[in-house]
Specification:
Mean pLDDT: 87
Strand content: 5-15%
Structural class: mainly alpha
Number of helices: 8
Shape: globular
Strand order of the largest sheet: 1-4
Order of helices and strands: EEEHHHHHEHHEEH
Radius of gyration: 20 Å
Low-confidence stretches: 258-264
Distance between the termini: 61 Å
Number of domains: 1
Helix content: 55-70%
Largest sheet: 2 strands, parallel
């Protein structure tokens, strides 16, 4: 069992506060953009053009992440005070929303600039999941996105009044820690496969399948809101992602074999 007494506010100057959440999320974005641009350059894209586009991709991801979180927690957090939806410095970003918003913006930019979207998705996939791992460190510090109360063998309890947990001093399932470990494992898989001579888009589909399975399973130990059929928003989105990614992944694996058979 681990007790965390760290103040989520790193620095306060009058009414202005710098929070650990914002600092770590910014670091996660920096890691993801740097690695994505590096891999994109390796695949033949102009690195400077990717860096220029990253501002819009990050903006799309942040808007999507906040939107998904607000929709998921509207009845209990935001209905009484809708303006709180703008208080992003307090925490509250849904990772699935970040993925959806970032991919949509990336698709729009690829269409306008004539970039091959599947190849670009492959380039950014390792950086995305590594950024997700780094970003979850913010949740450990602030107490955001912890799981259900637990009696062991591993739990996180918070003692600082600024922590975002439902109740101080209670041990909760360390969901952010589990996600960090799982994300790093997915990153290791993607990094080891990134040099394969595969059809464009397959690496991103592998990321989407692995990440969806991970989020669906871990959600059973979470404290997320149930939205439909006894499932959380994260699980519903994971099922939608799997319903798209699994057939497409199977198709990319079957198509080359079909082509080779036709040649013979």
């Amino acid at each position: 069992m681990i007790t965390i007494g760290l103040d989520p506010v790193l620095l306060s100057i009058g009414h202005f506060a710098v929070r650990w959440y914002g600092v770590i999320v910014a670091a996660a974005i920096g890691v993801g953009v740097w690695l994505g641009a590096r891999e994109a350059a390796r695949k033949g894209f102009n690195k400077d053009a990717i860096y220029d586009a990253s501002l819009w991709i990050v903006l799309g991801g942040l808007v999507g992440a906040r939107l998904f979180h607000v929709l998921d927690h509207w009845p209990d957090e935001f209905a009484a005070n809708p303006l709180r939806a703008l208080y992003v410095w307090e925490g509250g970003l849904a990772i699935w929303g970040g993925v959806a918003g970032g991919v949509l913006m990336l698709a729009l930019l690829a269409w306008r600039r004539g970039w091959p979207l599947p190849r670009l998705l492959d380039a950014v996939a390792p950086g995305v999941v590594l950024a997700q791992a780094v970003g979850r460190v913010a949740c450990i510090i602030t107490g955001d996105a912890v799981g259900r109360p637990t009696t062991g063998p591993l739990g996180l309890a918070y003692t600082h009044p600024n922590a975002m947990v439902p109740q101080l001093g209670v041990y909760y399932t360390p969901m952010p820690l589990y996600e960090i470990i799982a994300n790093l494992a997915i990153f290791a898989v993607l990094w080891s496969l990134r040099g394969k001579r595969w059809p464009d888009g397959r690496l991103f589909l592998i990321y989407l399948v692995l990440y969806s399975v991970m989020r669906f399973g871990l959600a059973y130990a979470s404290a997320y809101q149930i939205v439909a059929l006894g499932l959380t928003q994260s699980q519903v989105v994971a099922l939608v992602a799997l319903s798209v990614a699994v057939p497409m992944l199977a198709w990319t694996m079957w198509r080359p074999r079909q082509g080779a058979a036709m040649v013979r």
